[in-house]
């Protein structure tokens, strides 16, 4: 049993910020009580000076692209050819893949990300290295073999039967083991034949509780190319039965109303990736249209097109994007940003036990504790109220300001 003393901010209900200046009691990784300090004996861990947030949830991030971060100035398809895919080819070498896996998992943990839906590699050995490293560090990771049989460099291509065999073997090894789960992951329908997507549907049906993830409607040139190859983008997945409540599609910057209606009716979630959309010039995310269609939305860093692992930066960029949409944008409050970065992510990934710090939830948490005297420290000490403090966290905080990270009550950093 551990008693944590601090100022805890979370959003169990979308849109409203809950604050506890008090104690959270954790047993076997689960929050069993919370309340004013006077109701508890002396705390074991003092997290005062700063704020404690639920662990951040990244619903879309690419493991093999750590070293591709920062390739600016290109739209999606050029960036893939020039930055991402050459780097991804290097993960064929097991030593290289293991080094990148260590950098990747460390990058997530430093950024306060405790749960992630991770786009894996095209190489099964590299995906195995990722799961191995995530288990060693203790992150809650869902990932899978990325598959394609068209368009990409030859060494990244597979066949429908090999995709099924390799995916099945990885799922047998990792799905449901510790904090790991498997996600069936065609790269995007532009790089997949109908036969390959069919094999993805077979694997999804075989692996009970597996997620499905891919990309959709990111860039106008890409959307036009998918229309040539398959017809509609959302339909390219839906016609194989790949869209349901356990599916997460990244981006969706350019959906039609009919596509949003399909996503809403299937219960499929969308990973909004704000820094990536800005860096690649993909466009501004139509959050209001998603909400109007009942589509669940959470945040993704989309590293390496995204400009870093920290979901706090994604929250700020999401806010900027909606501001730039003017009247068509959703005005986002600090509580909305925290909800998108935590509870909405947990919901998108089908993990009801994480995302906030209520009794009964797993203790996944991040202690934002800036260096005394720095701008964020001054801002937090002078904030008028918890909403203002949270706004300052999103405006100013980054990985160096995170002094502790917990998953299931295990301190994985700090
Ligand atoms: N679409 C297909 N592959 C990718 C990728 O690696 N990054 C992004 N942002 N979009 C993609
Ligand atoms: Zn992506």
Automatic annotation (TrEMBL):
InterPro entries: Amidohydro-rel (IPR006680), Metal-dep_hydrolase_composite (IPR011059), Metal_Hydrolase (IPR032466), Metallo-dep_hydrolases (IPR051607)
Gene Ontology MF annotations: guanine deaminase activity
Keywords, in A-Z order: Hydrolase, Metal-binding, Zinc
Protein EC: 3.5.4.3
Known cofactor(s): Zn(2+)
Superkingdom as given in the UniProt entry: Bacteria
Domain Amidohydrolase-related: 51-410
Nucleus as UniProt keyword: no
Enzyme class: hydrolase
TM stretches of this protein: none
Protein name from the UniProt record: Guanine deaminase
A Pfam family per the record: Amidohydro_1
């Amino acid at each position: 049993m551990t008693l944590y003393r601090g100022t805890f901010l979370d959003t169990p209900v979308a849109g409203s910020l809950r604050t506890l200046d008090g104690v959270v009691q954790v047993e076997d990784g689960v929050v069993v009580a919370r309340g004013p300090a006077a109701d508890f004996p002396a705390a074991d861990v003092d997290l005062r000076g700063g704020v404690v947030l639920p662990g951040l949830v990244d619903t879309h991030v690419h493991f093999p692209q750590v070293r591709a971060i920062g390739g600016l100035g290109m739209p999606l398809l050029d960036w893939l050819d020039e930055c991402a895919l050459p780097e991804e080819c290097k993960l064929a070498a097991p030593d290289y893949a293991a080094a990148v896996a260590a950098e990747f998992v460390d990058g997530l943990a430093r950024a306060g990300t405790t749960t992630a839906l991770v786009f894996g590699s095209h190489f099964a050995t590299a995906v195995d290295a990722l799961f191995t490293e995530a288990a060693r560090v203790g992150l809650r990771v869902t990932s899978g073999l990325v598959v394609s049989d068209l368009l990409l460099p030859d060494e990244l291509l597979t066949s429908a039967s090999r995709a099924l065999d390799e995916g099945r073997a990885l799922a047998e090894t990792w799905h449901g083991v510790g904090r790991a789960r498997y996600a069936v992951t065609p790269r995007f329908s532009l790089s997949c034949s109908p036969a390959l997507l069919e094999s993805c549907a077979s694997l999804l049906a075989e692996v009970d509780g597996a997620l499905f993830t891919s990309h959709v409607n990111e860039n106008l040139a890409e959307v036009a190319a998918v229309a040539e190859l398959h017809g509609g983008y959302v339909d390219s997945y839906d016609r194989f039965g790949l869209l349901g409540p356990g599916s997460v599609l990244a981006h969706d910057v350019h959906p039609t109303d009919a596509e949003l209606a399909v996503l809403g009716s299937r219960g499929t979630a969308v990973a909004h990736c704000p820094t990536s959309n800005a860096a690649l010039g993909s466009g501004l995310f139509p959050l209001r249209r998603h909400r109007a269609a009942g589509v669940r939305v959470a945040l993704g860093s989309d590293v390496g097109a995204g400009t870093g692992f920290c979901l706090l930066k994604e929250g700020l960029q999401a806010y900027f994007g909606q501001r730039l949409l003017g009247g068509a944008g959703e005005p986002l409050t600090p509580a909305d940003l925290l909800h998108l970065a935590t509870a909405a992510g947990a919901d998108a990934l089908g993990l009801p036990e994480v995302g906030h710090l209520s009794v009964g939830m797993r203790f996944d948490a991040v202690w934002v504790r800036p260096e005394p005297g720095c701008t964020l420290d001054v801002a937090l000490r002078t904030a008028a109220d918890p909403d203002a403090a949270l706004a300052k966290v999103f405006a100013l905080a980054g990985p160096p300001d995170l002094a502790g990270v917990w998953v299931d009550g295990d301190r994985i950093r700090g």
